[in-house]
Design brief:
Blueprint lengths: L15 H13 L2 H28 L6 H22 L2 H23 L3 E4 L2 E8 L2 E3 L1 H16 L14 H4 L3 H19 L4 H17 L4 H20 L5 H11 L10 H12 L11 H4 L12 H33 L3 H26 L16 H20 L9
Antiparallel strand pairs: 1-2, 2-3
Helix pairs in contact: 2-3, 2-13, 3-15, 4-5, 4-7, 5-7, 5-8, 5-14, 5-15, 7-8, 8-14, 11-13, 13-14, 13-15, 14-15
């Protein structure tokens, strides 16, 4: 008697095609991308621990409080990444409008009595129990997805039949749609005001338009529009006074070193004192003396510079380079424009945040309150960053050409 393999439920009877499909997807998963994100998160946990252990001990609290929270955020972030990776690729695109609307509602909620103010910006919603959420971080994900959808909408009437998907992506109609998708959340964020998040969204938008093949003429016009908007924001006093002061301190590094220029002055002092190999982990005098404000969040790179020195800083930057290069590799392998633009948006987002955060500690960029992805302490930033990694992995698994073909 011969059994029909189709009714055998055992693993050995799994169709060969299904087995090959799963094996192919497993090979396509970018373990190097995930490894870089994990390494940065663990690196960040060590730096956050060093920056906060003496502070919490002095107040009678748990010296490992921030370390434990950081590791908990990492665990939640990994779960979100896995869920994002496993989602159907078509479903991700289909629910993007819903996610975008939810992100806008979250930003609007911050402006309501639900919002709480920290360091001059009303950017958080308190959830109770010491937990809070920053909707602007999730707005970054929503804008990247929203832009990718708008720039790959079905062709409009009158488009020449020979026009490629990429050519259609940069028509005036789609560019206007992209401006709307990015402009609405940016406008709300500027009302908080959260200049750093607004800058990230604008740079990610520019990156997406460049990767989509937008002509130099359009990019120049958009650049002029952004400059006019920046001047208008200053004239209309949309920026808080402390944000204006930060730009003044950037233009004149010697301006008020005990006031508005204090953060950057102490940050440069901490990094410069580390030398080549640093003072040793947990041995930083600037770090232990708590001379650098917000050292576990915006200025976490100063801990690496002081305690691990030039070498420690280079290692951190090298991990970011791996992360960005793997994102670019996923975009290059992608045979789907939507997927390519998602990867491009994530790369632009991470690249700017990394450059701005490290740059402001070195004095080559103005202080803008931007976290260092995966490294800085903060749940919302960690969650959004791992969701972004999950999106890149999702694209790589389902919308890319195989890197290696087997006959």
């Amino acid at each position: 008697m011969t059994l029909n393999p189709a009714i055998n439920k055992g693993p050995a009877a799994m169709p060969v095609a299904e087995t090959r499909r799963r094996s192919s997807r497993l090979r396509r998963f970018d373990w190097m991308l995930l490894g870089a994100a994990l390494a940065l998160s663990i690196y960040g946990a060590i730096l956050v621990w060093s920056a906060t252990r003496s502070r919490t001990a002095l107040t009678g609290g748990d010296p490992q409080f921030f370390l434990k929270r950081h590791m908990m955020n990492l665990a939640i972030g990994l779960v979100l990444m896995v869920l994002t990776t496993l989602l159907s690729y078509a479903w991700v695109r289909a629910v993007t409008p819903v996610f975008y609307i939810l992100a806008l509602l979250g930003l609007a909620a911050v402006l309501s009595p639900l919002g709480s103010t920290v360091n001059g910006a009303k950017s958080w919603i308190e959830l109770g129990g010491g937990f809070s959420i920053q909707p602007a971080e999730f707005a970054k994900v929503a804008v990247v997805l929203g832009l990718a959808v708008v720039l790959t909408l079905p062709p409009t009437k009158g488009v020449l039949s020979g026009m490629s998907e990429r050519d259609e992506a940069v028509t005036p109609r789609r560019i206007a749609g992209a401006g709307l998708v990015a402009g609405i959340p940016t406008g709300i964020i500027m009302l908080l005001p959260d200049l750093g998040s607004a800058m990230v969204i604008l740079v990610a938008t520019a990156g997406l338009l460049v990767f989509a093949g937008t002509s130099g003429r359009w990019l120049a016009l958009l650049g002029v529009g952004a400059a006019v908007a920046a001047v208008a924001a200053t004239r209309l006093h949309l920026l808080a006074q402390h944000q204006v002061n930060r730009f003044a301190a950037f233009a004149d590094p010697h301006l008020d070193p005990q006031g508005v220029g204090y953060n950057t002055a102490q940050a440069r002092l901490a990094i410069g004192s580390g030398g080549v190999l640093g003072k040793g982990l947990f041995n930083g005098t600037q770090t232990n003396g708590r001379y650098v404000p917000e050292q576990q969040t915006d200025f976490v790179f100063t801990v690496a510079g002081e305690e691990l020195g030039f070498v420690g800083g280079v290692v951190l930057i090298a991990l970011f380079a791996v992360l960005l290069l793997r994102g670019i590799a996923a975009a290059r392998l992608c045979d789907d424009l939507f997927g390519m633009l998602v990867c491009a948006g994530v790369v632009s987002w991470f690249a700017f945040e990394t450059f701005e955060n490290i740059g402001m500690t070195l004095g080559i960029m103005p202080v803008a309150g931007i976290p260092l992805p995966f490294v800085s302490y903060g749940g919302s930033s960690m969650f959004a960053s791992f969701i972004a990694v999950g999106l890149v992995e999702n694209v790589r698994l389902r919308a890319t050409r195989p890197a290696i073909t087997v006959d």
